[in-house]
């Protein structure tokens, strides 16, 4: 008889910004096909989390679809992975409510992201923003995820998720899998093109990042204008020369060349030639993805089918967890 080895499950939540950057690509999206063989991956486009700030409905809808299309264009196989919209699986909101009752005000008020965001949006400090980490915990726990890929900014949120799960389990027995962070073995951190000591982010000004859907001439221009230094030699020294180091690690990540090989090849050729090579490599990587993106976005029937089947498969897993939770808590449905 065939023995089925249970793969570990990865759960990942993605904000539907609709604008993914080269940093997202190098850090996450290009690894889809490696991950899908080793893990059982669930990707949720977290449109409920997006509602903590005021959204324009048409723009939100487009951003959600763009995010899904970009994932698919990057090589995510919707048969081998689950990809779906959070709001389409009602169990997220249900479990979030339950977990709210197991989370303390004090814990939430200590969250640094809440403090930062409420300072930024002082006119709209809503309860959703306050309990954002609880909804995130519900996302993860519903799928009994073993691993959650997260950046440094989400560490505190994963920690609170583990605390809430542990607290619930301590009362009701083993209901939830306690998740760990997943930190990919490889994966350069891509920095801002203008302030290379900061992470590349699509919330910074346009010239600081490369969007995955940027046109080739835009990419070339942004790389040409990327901050370097006055040394004019290509060598890896991230502490003292972060701009050059960032371009080198981008090139290394995309071309497979090592940093040493890059330094040897471009060392004295000058920044102009080096930057052209970096831009060429980014363009060559993104062009086929952009082409697939255009095809996928135009294929409404395909997108609809991916959406529907993702919702069905995600719902089935979430439903099982919810039944368990309901039973433990003593809330319906009961078997009379
Ligand atoms: N808060 C995460 C972010 O801003 C997005 C997110 C929502 C998430 N739910 C999640 C990430 C569950 C991992 C797991 O990036």
Keywords:
336 residues, mainly alpha, three-stranded parallel sheet, 14 helices
Write a short abstract of this structure.
The chain has 336 residues and is mainly α. The protein has helices spanning 22-27, 32-38, 57-73, 91-100, 105-109, 112-120, 127-130, 132-142, 155-172, 216-224, 242-255, 259-266, 271-298, 300-329; strands spanning 9-14, 40-45, 82-85, 147-149, 180-182.
Describe the structure in your own words.
Helix 3 (57-73) links the parallel strand 2 (40-45) and strand 3. The strands form two sheets. A three-stranded parallel sheet has the order 1-2-3, sandwiched between helices. It has a two-stranded parallel sheet with strand order 4-5. With 336 residues, the protein is mostly helical. The radius of gyration is 22 Å and the shape is globular. It contains 14 helices and five strands. Helix 3 (57-73) crosses helix 13 (271-298), helix 10 runs antiparallel to helix 13 and helix 11 (242-255) packs across helix 13 (271-298). The model has no long low-confidence stretch (mean pLDDT 95). The protein has helices at residues 22-27, 32-38, 57-73, 91-100, 105-109, 112-120, 127-130, 132-142, 155-172, 216-224, 242-255, 259-266, 271-298, 300-329, and strands at 9-14, 40-45, 82-85, 147-149, 180-182. The longest helix has 30 residues, at 300-329. The two termini are 39 Å apart. Tryptophan binds at residues 11-13, 15, 46, 49, 136, 139-140, 148, 150, 154, 157.
């Amino acid at each position: 008889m065939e023995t089925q080895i249970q793969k570990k499950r990865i759960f990942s939540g993605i904000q539907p910004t609709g604008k993914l950057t080269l940093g997202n690509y190098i850090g996450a999206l290009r690894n889809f096909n490696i991950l899908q063989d080793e893990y059982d991956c669930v990707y949720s486009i977290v449109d409920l989390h997006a509602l903590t700030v005021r959204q324009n409905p048409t723009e939100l809808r487009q951003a959600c679809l763009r995010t899904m299309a970009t994932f698919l264009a990057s090589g995510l196989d919707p048969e081998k992975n689950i990809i779906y919209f959070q709001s389409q699986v009602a169990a997220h909101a249900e479990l979030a409510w339950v977990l709210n009752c197991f989370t303390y005000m004090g814990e939430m008020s200590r969250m640094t992201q809440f403090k930062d965001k409420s300072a930024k949006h002082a006119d709209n400090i809503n309860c959703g923003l306050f309990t954002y980490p609880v909804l995130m915990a519900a996302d993860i726990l519903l799928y009994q995820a073993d691993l959650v890929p997260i950046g440094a900014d989400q560490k505190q949120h994963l920690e609170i998720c583990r605390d809430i799960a542990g607290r619930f389990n301590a009362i009701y027995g083993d209901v939830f899998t306690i998740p760990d962070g997943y930190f990919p073995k490889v994966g350069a951190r891509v920095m801002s093109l203008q302030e290379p000591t900061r992470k590349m982010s699509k919330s910074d000004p346009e010239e600081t990042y490369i969007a995955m859907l940027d046109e080739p001439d835009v990419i070339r221009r942004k790389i040409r204008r990327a901050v370097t230094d006055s040394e004019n030699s290509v060598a890896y020294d991230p502490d003292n020369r972060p701009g050059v180091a960032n371009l080198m690690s981008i090139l290394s990540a995309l071309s497979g060349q090592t940093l040493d090989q890059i330094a040897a090849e471009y060392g004295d050729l000058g920044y102009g030639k080096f930057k052209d090579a970096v831009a060429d490599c980014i363009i060559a990587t993104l062009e086929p993805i952009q082409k697939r993106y255009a095809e996928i976005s135009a294929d409404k029937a395909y997108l609809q089918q991916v959406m529907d089947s993702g919702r069905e498969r995600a719902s089935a897993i979430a439903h099982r967890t919810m039944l368990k939770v309901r039973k433990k808590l003593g809330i319906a449905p009961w078997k009379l």
